[in-house]
Amino acid sequence: MSQNLAQTRQITTNFPINENLYQNCEEEITENYFPETVIIDGEEMGETTVHYGLISNFVKMLELFFVTRRDVLISANLNVYYDEENGRKFYAPDILVCFGIGNHPRKTFKLWDEGTFPQIIFEIASASTVEADLGKKYLDYANLGVEEYYLLDAERENLPAPLIAYHRQNGRLVSAKIENNRVFSPLLNLEIVDENDRFRLFDVAAKEFLKTPLELEYDYERLEMEKESLESENAELKARLAKYENGEL
């Protein structure tokens, strides 16, 4: 391996992006090499702003929901390697949740080091990934032990339905029923809800939706304004009380 390759820790290939990406990477580079980033035609794989917003919000909401759990890893687009003998065999789920392991930062996720595959996978479908999301990824995730697999169509033009869910039953990953545009996640103890214009997470125990970072920021600003208003009113009352005690009123 060249010094430059070792420093950049990236893979380049002239093949187009597709579900067999790891099979198309150069064998002499990837067979026993597990990079942090995959580069296709000189560009790192990315997502649209719609995809990014959904992924970012879900990750932040889940991180806050599990903030007291040090044994829950939540990550986005993390390379998950599942074959110690072949660095070409990996996936980078849009969102993954893995229980029973430390939530310390990682550059990659290696099945043989972690001892388990992520139990929950979210994929945000796009025109270029939908075939793999419903086909090869589904089959591989099922074989690798995924307990819950969720497909969300943020653009609402790629999947047969905007929200598709699979749960493991009797050793198989089978379709989960979507009722009233929502599905319950037994492992998360949350509902994934399709509100037509966006997807949300509902806390069944607290009977409320998890809030996005922007919503939390709005709440904080509102509380700060209310605090300032109360402090102003309190100061005014104190001033009037002082005048009253001094016989000025």
Describe the structure.
- The chain folds into 2 domains: 3-210, tt1808, chain A (Alpha-Beta Complex); 211-249.
- A hairpin with a 4-residue loop joins strand 15 and strand 16.
- The protein has 249 residues and is α+β, with helices and mostly antiparallel strands.
- 33% of the residues lie in helices and 24% in strands.
- The strands form 4 sheets. A 6-stranded mixed beta sheet has the order 4-7-9-10-11-12, sandwiched between helices. A 4-stranded antiparallel beta sheet has the order 13-14-15-16, covered by helices on one side.
Secondary-structure topology with pairs:
Layout lengths: L2 H6 L1 E2 L9 H4 L2 H4 L6 E4 L2 E2 L4 H17 L6 E4 L4 E2 L8 E2 L3 E5 L9 E2 H4 L5 E5 L5 H5 L1 H9 L3 E5 L10 E7 L2 E4 L6 E4 L4 E5 L4 E5 L4 E2 L3 H33 L4
Parallel strand pairs: 1-2, 5-8, 9-10
Antiparallel strand pairs: 2-3, 4-7, 5-6, 7-9, 10-11, 11-12, 13-14, 14-15, 15-16
